[in-house]
C-alpha cells in the first residue's frame, strides 16, 4: 500500500488545471485496469490515503464512491474497500479468436469463429466505401460560381427573425417535442395551397409530408417502396446526391439517356421495367431541358402499366425566366404513381433543411408513420416560423424578387460568356434555375478545368461528375444566383483564363 | 371550332373564386389530353375565342402562351396555333405490357416483360411493410407518463430566443447555406469539452460529427460500416427506434439477453461474431441496469479480437440520481472500436433535433464526407445558438436544475406506486434517466394494460414492444420527467385503477 501512495503522489500534480479529484480518479482507474492494483487487493482507508497524499479526505471519499459506482471497487461496510475483479472474461473472448494469444492454456476452439457474412473485413462496408469513393459533395459551399445555391445574403433575415422571436415567446410544449408524423399541420396546409397554384400539384394537406429535404424524401420513398436489389431508372446525367442516396439503400441504378425532350428510354430499357424512376421533368438536372408533354404522358402510362413508382424531383422550377413555371408531372398523373419531392432550400436558404413530399392519398398514413419511426422528426418551431412566413405572403414576394435578381445575374453571366468566347462555347439549360451548363469542346477535360478553376478561386462543377456511364458532353455547371452583380465579370474573367489555357491551349498573357 | 367555344362557355364560371385564366387553361389541357381536341387541330384565333367567351383577349393570349410553353400546342408565327401530338408512345408502353389492351394491332411481345426483381408487386416494399408493421412510434408525444421525454416547459426558452435573435442579427452566409461535413466547429469544440468532463469520452473536436439525433447517427454508422445482410447484436429488450433504423438498412438483428450486469452473450452468440453491437451501457434501455466493468472489458476485448463495431448509445446518463454519472464505454476503449452516439434532445427539447457522434480519429474524415453526401446537412444557425448556450454555461445549469426536478418527480411517483401497491409491483431501473419500469405480474398482459391506460388518458409503454423474441418480463415504461409535480398523484391514480382492473381483476369502485 505504501507503493500505491508513493506512485500516486508522484503522478498527482496539484498545480495542474485538472482538479485533483479527477486526477486521482483517473489514476486509480488506470491502476486497476492495468493490474497494478490486482483484483481482491484492499485499498488504503480514505483517511490514510488522504494523509499520504496531503489532500482532503473528502476528495478521497468521493473518488472511492465513484470507483464503487463504476464497479472498479467493492465496498463492504466496516471491512473496507477491495479491488473488484473486472478482468475481461477470457473464456468468452479468448479461445475462439484467431489472434488470441494471451490465453495459452485454453482448449482448442470447438467451432469455426465466424459466419461468412461477418468475416473480419476492413473497417468500412462495401457500400460505405463506394459512398466515399463516389462522393460528389463539395468542400466549399459558397462563392462564384457555386451551382444550386441561392443568394442567402438576400434572404429577409430580419422578417424571419421577427416571426421566430414572436413564436418563441409563446413556445408551447407541442412545438418543442417530437413532431407527429408528417409535420406541422398549418405548414402542410400552406404548402398544399402553394403547390396547387404554383406547380399544378393535386394534393390535400394530408398528402404532404414534411422532411428535412430532397435527400430525406428520396430516402424515405426508397425504403418504403423498394427493396435491396431493386432497380431504379435515373436520368443520365443526374444529380450525384440522389444517386448516393439510392445506392446507399441498395438500389441498382439504370442510367437512361436524356435528349432535348428529356428522359428517353430505349427499347432494352423498356423491356425491363424498373421498380422506380427518378426524374426532373421541369428542368432536367443538370442539363436543363424540359420533359415534353408526349414523354410525360408516355412515362405515366408506362408507370401505370408496369407499376413503376415515379419520383418527381421538382427542385428549382420556381425560377423560370422566359415563361411562367411549367406544370408538374404529378398534376398529370391519373394513377397515383408519382411521389413529388421538393425543398424550400433553394427558395429561402439551404441551411433551413425543410423539404416536403406529396404522396398518393392511399399511402399518406404509411409515410406519416414511417417518417416518425425512421427519423424521429422534430423542428416544429422552425416549421411554424415557415408556415407564418408563407401565410403572410413573404415566400411569394421573396421568390418574385429573386426571380428578377437571378434573371439579371444570368444575363450578366451570359453576356460575359459571349464577350469572352463569342459563340464558341454554348450555354445550355439557362431558361430556369440557379445555374446553366457552359459547354466545352469535346477534346477538353472538364474535371481538370474545374480543378484548375477551384485553385484559381472559382467554383464550377464538371459535367463529368454527373454521368454514371460514358460522358456524353463536356461542360461546366456554372451557378450565378449567389454571385453579386458586380462580382460576375471579374470572376468570369478568372474562369475564362482557366478555360482558355486548358481548353484552347492559350497561355496567360 | 364552334363546338369548342360552346363547350368552354358552358364550363367556365366567371363567378367562381378560381380566376378565368386558370379555368380556361385547365379546360384546354383537359380537352387536349382527352382527345376532344385532336392532334393537329387548329385552335381558334385568340381574338375569336375571346369574343365567343366574352373575356379579355389578353387572357386567351396568356393561356395560349402557357399551353405552348408546356407543349400542349405548337405556335407558328403567321399560320396559327395547332394542337401538338402528345399522345403516349404506345409502341413504348403498350405491346410489352401484360395488361395492355388498347393497342390490339401491335405484334406479340418479343421479350419477357420483367426481370424477377421487378415483378409487379404490391405498393410497398418488403422492408417498408415490415417497418410499418413493427413501428413503435407513439401517436401522442406528450403527457403523463410519456417515457423518454423531458419537461420542455422548463426549458429556458427566453434565453434561447435571446441568443437566437442576436445571432440572426448578424446572420452570415456561411451559417445559412449547407453545412460543411461534421457541423459547426465551435459546437463540436464545446461538445468535446463537455463530453470529456461529463462522460469521460476521449475525443478531439475533429472526432465529433453533428447529426440530427441518435437515429441519424446509427443510420450513418450502419451505412458506412455494415453491409446489407450483416448481423448486429442488439440488447433484448431494446429501443424500437434503433431496431427499425438497423433493419431498414438491411441489418439482421441478433437479440442478446441482458441480466443485472447488462449485455450477457451466451456461448452460441459468441461463436458468431456480429459486424456490430448496439449497447446502452450507462443505463440499459429500457430496463435501466448499468453494464458492469467486467462485462465492459469483455465486450471491448471481444470487439478488438473479432473486429466488431460497438455503437454506444448514451442517451440519458446525465440524469443519475444517486451517484455521479458513470463513465462511458468509449473512454475505456483502447482499440478504436466504439462509435459513441448521443443527443441533446433529452437534455433540452426533443424538437431541437441535434445529436452528435464521436468516431475514431482514423474514420473522422470519412464520416464528415458521408454525413454531407447522404443528408446534405445544414442547420448551422441552430448549431451556433446551441454552441453559445453551452459555452455560456446554460446547458450545465439547466441539466443540474432538471436533475433535481426530475429526482423529485421520480420520488413522488415511486411514493405513489408504494401507496397503491405496497411492494406488489417492483420499480426497476429508477437510478437514472427520465423513466422507470413498473413491473407487472407474470400473468398480466402489459400491451392490454397500456392500451387501456391510453384510453383512460395515461400514456405508458408496454415492455412487450421492446422484445424482439419471447417477452421475459411484464412491465410498463413509466416516464415522470415531463409530468408536473401536482399531476403525478392524480395521473397515477388513473393508471392504478387500470392496473388493478386488468392485472388483479379488481372492479372499479
From TrEMBL, chains A, B:
Gene3D superfamilies documented for this protein = Type I PLP-dependent aspartate aminotransferase-like (Major domain), Winged helix-like DNA-binding domain superfamily/Winged helix DNA-binding domain
Q: Where is the composition biased (Low complexity)?
A: 106-116
Q: Where is the HTH gntR-type domain?
A: 18-86
The GO terms this record gives for MF are: DNA binding; DNA-binding transcription factor activity; pyridoxal phosphate binding; transaminase activity
Record's keyword annotation contains Transferase: yes
User: What family does the database annotate?
Assistant: In the C-terminal section; belongs to the class-I pyridoxal-phosphate-dependent aminotransferase family.
**Keyword tags:** Aminotransferase, DNA-binding, Pyridoxal phosphate, Transcription, Transcription regulation, Transferase
Cross-referenced InterPro entries = Aminotransferase_I/II_large, HTH_trans_reg/aminotransferase, PyrdxlP-dep_Trfase, PyrdxlP-dep_Trfase_major, Tscrpt_reg_HTH_GntR, WH-like_DNA-bd_sf, WH_DNA-bd_sf
Which PROSITE patterns does this entry report, sorted A to Z?
HTH_GNTR
Q: Where is this region: Disordered?
A: 85-123
Q: Which domain of life is it from?
A: Bacteria
Q: Which organism is it from?
A: Paraburkholderia bannensis
Q: Per the record's keyword annotation, is Lipid metabolism included, yes or no?
A: no
Protein name stated in the entry: GntR family transcriptional regulator/MocR family aminotransferase
What start and end residues bound the annotated signal peptide? none
Amino acid at each position: 500500500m505504501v507503493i500505491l501512495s508513493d506512485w500516486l503522489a508522484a503522478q498527482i500534480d496539484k498545480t495542474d488545471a485538472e482538479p485533483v479529484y479527477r486526477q486521482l480518479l483517473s489514476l486509480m482507474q488506470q491502476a486497476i485496469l492495468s493490474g497494478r492494483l490486482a483484483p481482491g487487493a484492499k485499498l488504503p482507508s480514505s483517511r490514510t490515503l488522504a494523509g499520504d497524499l496531503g489532500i482532503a479526505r473528502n476528495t478521497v471519499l468521493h473518488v472511492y464512491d465513484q470507483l464503487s459506482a463504476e464497479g472498479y471497487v467493492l465496498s463492504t461496510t466496516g471491512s473496507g474497500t477491495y479491488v473488484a475483479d473486472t478482468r475481461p472474461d477470457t473464456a468468452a473472448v479468448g479461445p475462439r479468436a484467431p489472434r488470441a494469444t494471451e490465453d495459452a492454456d485454453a482448449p482448442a476452439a470447438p467451432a469455426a469463429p465466424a459466419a461468412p457474412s461477418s468475416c473480419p473485413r476492413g473497417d468500412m462496408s462495401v457500400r460505405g466505401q463506394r459512398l466515399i469513393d463516389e462522393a460528389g459533395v463539395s468542400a466549399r459551399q459558397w462563392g462564384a460560381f457555386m451551382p444550386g445555391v441561392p443568394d442567402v445574403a438576400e434572404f429577409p433575415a430580419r422578417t424571419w427573425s421577427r416571426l421566430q422571436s414572436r413564436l418563441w415567446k409563446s413556445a408551447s410544449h407541442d412545438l418543442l417535442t417530437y413532431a407527429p408524423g408528417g409535420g406541422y399541420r398549418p405548414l402542410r396546409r400552406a404548402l398544399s395551397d402553394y403547390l396547387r397554384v404554383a406547380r399544378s400539384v393535386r394534393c390535400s394537406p394530408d398528402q404532404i409530408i414534411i422532411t428535412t429535404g430532397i435527400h430525406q424524401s428520396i430516402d424515405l420513398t426508397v425504403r418504403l417502396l423498394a427493396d435491396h436489389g431493386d432497380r431504379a431508372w435515373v436520368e443520365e446525367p443526374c444529380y450525384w446526391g440522389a444517386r448516393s442516396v439510392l445506392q446507399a439503400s441498395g438500389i441498382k441504378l439504370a442510367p437512361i439517356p436524356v435528349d432535348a425532350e428529356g428522359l428517353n428510354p430505349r427499347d432494352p430499357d423498356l423491356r425491363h421495367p424498373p421498380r422506380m424512376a427518378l426524374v426532373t421533368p421541369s428542368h432536367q438536372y443538370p442539363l436543363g431541358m424540359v420533359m415534353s408533354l408526349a414523354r410525360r404522358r408516355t412515362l405515366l402510362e408506362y408507370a401505370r402499366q408496369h407499376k413503376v413508382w415515379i419520383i418527381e424531383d421538382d427542385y428549382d422550377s420556381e425560377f423560370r425566366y422566359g415563361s411562367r413555371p411549367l406544370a408538374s408531372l404529378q398534376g398529370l398523373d391519373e394513377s397515383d404513381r408519382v411521389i413529388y419531392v421538393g425543398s424550400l432550400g433553394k427558395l429561402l436558404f439551404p441551411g433551413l433543411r425543410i423539404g416536403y413530399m406529396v404522396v398518393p392519398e392511399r399511402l399518406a398514413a404509411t409515410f406519416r408513420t414511417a417518417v416518425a419511426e425512421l427519423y424521429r422528426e422534430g423542428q416544429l418551431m422552425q416549421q411554424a416560423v415557415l408556415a407564418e412566413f408563407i401565410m403572410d405572403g413573404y415566400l411569394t414576394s421573396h421568390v418574385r424578387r429573386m426571380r428578377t435578381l437571378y434573371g439579371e445575374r444570368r444575363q450578366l453571366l451570359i453576356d460575359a460568356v459571349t464577350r469572352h468566347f463569342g459563340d464558341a462555347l454554348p450555354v445550355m439549360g439557362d431558361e430556369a434555375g440557379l445555374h446553366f451548363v457552359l459547354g466545352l469542346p469535346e477534346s477538353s477535360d472538364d474535371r481538370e478545368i474545374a480543378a484548375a478553376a477551384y485553385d484559381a478561386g472559382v467554383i464550377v462543377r464538371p459535367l463529368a461528375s454527373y454521368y454514371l456511364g460514358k460522358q456524353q458532353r463536356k461542360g461546366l455547371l456554372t451557378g450565378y444566383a449567389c454571385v453579386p452583380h458586380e462580382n460576375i465579370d471579374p470572376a468570369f474573367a478568372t474562369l475564362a483564363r482557366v478555360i482558355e489555357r486548358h481548353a484552347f491551349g492559350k497561355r496567360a498573357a
